[in-house]
Amino acid sequence: MKLTKIAALAGIAALTLAGCAAGADDSADSASSAATSDIKICVYTHGDGGTFWSVAQAGAEQAGADLGVTVDYQGSTNDSARQAAIIEGAISASCDGVAASAPDPGAIQQAMLGLADAGIPTVTMNSGSDVFKDLGAFTHVGQDEIVAGREAGLRFNDMGATNILCPIQEAANVGLTDRCAGARETSTGTVTDFNLDGGLQDLTAASAKVKAALEADPSIDAVFALNADIAAKAVLPAVQDLGRDIQIGTVDMSEDALNAIADGDIAFAIDQQQYAQGYMSVVLLYLNVTNAHSLGGGLPMYTGPGFVDSSNVEEVIGLVAAGTR
């Protein structure tokens, strides 16, 4: 399938170089459109369709529209077994290339390597920057979570934080523990992991757990939330109920979190720019399928960390409203 499409595009290029007449050029353009429209790029993530993943999906689908190819996006709502099954089905689904997130690499490794054995190019996206080669992918598109955590630790240092609570809302997601670990590397104070598994499913209960942890240790002066909804709907209410001066930083963005930054209630959000993760994954696979490009040089291609704070939050709010941030 892949070779047929490349051959078709090569034939089109040959016609163009031969200086065909206008009518032939029109025919070549039609052939080119037909060749690319037959390409199917599949994006199979652990996403839940929420405020973060809907933007990543929009990026992937916009890339498909811009390139004139079919994009099949499917999320598995943090169900690793389900994601593995979806990836395994990529061959029968006639996917020409597959992008997959890898929060639980071991769960999808067999499925990903099966695609490699079948000659289907893959990239990892969002999570998996340190394991993409083990999964048979030629590059990774996303942010390095350790690096993101390190930068957050430096931000907390600038704010004078000495005792940082780091709630982890998905126990099986290694990317979340990496964020806390990165912050621990650069923080001049203490960074403590806190089990908040399942917190996204019940934000009220999550807020109560965070409040209890803060009450139990009055020396905690900062919280590094790893999700925007956790930050705005669980951590911030707990902090406000206690009435303590506790700095809050978060990863990723939501309308509520951005408004809280604008109001001065949250200090910063790390922006891994998920729209670009979806968009670039499709572009990289398209170039591999159509022109045998394997971009990245064997290294990850980083989309972050960027930061949103009081200096740029108003601009970013407008872009979030447009669905691209």
Strand order of the largest sheet: 2-1-3-4-5-11
CATH architecture of the largest domain: 3-Layer(aba) Sandwich
* Oligomerization state: single chain
Helix-strand category: alpha/beta
Helix content: 40-55%
Structural domain tally = 2
User: Uncertain segments of ≥5 residues (pLDDT<50)?
Assistant: 1-22
In what range is the share of β-strand residues?
A: 15-25%
Summarize the structure.
By secondary structure, this protein is of the alpha/beta class. It has helices spanning 2-17, 22-37, 53-67, 80-88, 105-117, 145-158, 174-186, 203-216, 228-242, 255-263, 274-291, 313-321; strands at residues 40-45, 70-75, 97-100, 122-126, 140-142, 163-168, 190-195, 222-224, 247-251, 268-271, 301-302, 306-308. Strands 2-1-3-4-5-11 form a six-stranded parallel beta sheet, sandwiched between helices. A six-stranded mixed beta sheet has the order 7-6-8-9-10-12, sandwiched between helices.
Please explain how this structure is put together.
With 325 residues, the protein is α/β, with parallel strands linked by helices. The chain has helices at residues 2-17, 22-37, 53-67, 80-88, 105-117, 145-158, 174-186, 203-216, 228-242, 255-263, 274-291, 313-321, and strands at residues 40-45, 70-75, 97-100, 122-126, 140-142, 163-168, 190-195, 222-224, 247-251, 268-271, 301-302, 306-308. The chain is built from 12 helices and 12 strands. The protein has a 6-stranded parallel beta sheet with strand order 2-1-3-4-5-11, sandwiched between helices. Strands 7-6-8-9-10-12 form a 6-stranded mixed beta sheet, with helices on both faces. The model is unreliable at 1-22 (pLDDT under 50).
